[in-house]
Fold:
Amino acid sequence: MSAAPPEEPSTREAGEADGLGEPVQAPQVVRELGDACVRFVEAALGLKLDFSPEMLPVLDHYVATRRKELLSRPETIGLVARATGAYFGEVVRRHFRSFWYTPSDDVSTWELRFEPVYLAFSPIAVADDAITHGDEDGVTARFQLDDEDREVVETRLFDLPSASDDEFFSFSTRLEVLEIAVDAIKARMMASGLGEVAFTNDDYDEG
Structure:
């Protein structure tokens, strides 16, 4: 999958915290795709998404109502995955302190990287899974984590009740999983005296 080229790179990635601790807005291409998702959903359902977690069930409903059509026309999946993935990434970025990493125009290389904990993931891949139910490796396989953190997160997730495919692959559930992951990793960091550590692109690129 590919999209329009991202903006010219600056000294830090768009969305990464600046020297004053304030987050920089997402790259223009991400904002445009997220806005396209808002238009798609409003045209289909008559409801306007607002980038809040509370509206994710509306996005889940939109994907559910279009899944059969999309799977019958695979060439359309990429566009919807890019738009819904960018939107979901923006919901997450506004919910957690995190920033976009968009090194090329290939959206498969895009990540949302967290600052308070070492956790990164591809919102576009999450969107593709939401449409196709295609991730066979488990939810944590989609996350970039330290091995120690992965074990802690998987232990927490093991206690969750079973879910249908629609629930398991939904954006709402993915946000819930991210909340559990962040809480689990942060608790481990605090217990180790690392509660004030903040991660940057350099940390992720070295991982």
